[in-house]
Amino acid sequence: MCTAPAPLFHQIWSRDQWQDLPVYRSHLTPLMFLERSLHVFPDKLAVVDGERRFTYGQFGARIYRLASALRGRGIQEGDRVAILCRNSMEVLEAHFAIPQIGAVMVPINVRLTSEEIRYILDHSGARALLIEASLASLLDPIRHQLPELELVVRIDLWERHREPKPATDALPDVPSYEEFLLEGRPEPFA
Prior knowledge:
Keywords: Fatty acid metabolism, Ligase, Lipid metabolism. Residues 34-163 form the AMP-dependent synthetase/ligase domain. One of its GO terms (molecular function) is ligase activity. By secondary structure, the chain is an alpha/beta fold. It has one domain (29-189): 3-Layer(aba) Sandwich (Rossmann fold), CATH 3.40.50.12780. 32% of the residues lie in helices and 20% in strands.
C-alpha cells in the first residue's frame, strides 16, 4: 500500500491568513544594502570570480577606489558612464561604483559591432567608457567619431587608483542605469 508523502508544512495557511501577517518593507537601495553588508559582514566572502575571492571589506574598498577614480577624472552626478566588458568582478564593481557617485551606467553588449557600439555611446551621451583590454579593438575604428567621450579606462588599469570612498553618495531620485534594447537600431529603454 502506497501512502502520500507528508506535507512540508504542518499547517497549510489560507490566503486570508497570509494577508493578516505584518509586512516588513525595507527601503534599502542596492548601495545602502552594500554599505550595510560592508559594516555587518566585513570579513565574510562576498564575491567569487574564478580563482579570485573577495570579502565584503575588500569588495567595498575596490568599489570605492573605482568611484573615487571616476570622480577624480571629472565624472559627476548625472553623467553617463558606459561599460564594455564581459561578466567579471570588474563589471560588478562598476555596477556599484558608478551609481555611488550619482552617475548613470550604460552597459554595452560585448557582441555588438563597432558601429552599434558607436551608436550607443553617441546617443547615450556617455562621457566615459570602462573597457576590457581585449575589446579595445572594437573602439579603435570609431573613437574619432565620439567627441563627447572624454575618458576611456581599461579595466585592468583602474586598480592603480588608491583614493578612499568618494565624498558624495548618489541621491535616491537619480537614475543609475540606462539600458538600450536592440530592435533594429538600439534605443534607450526607460
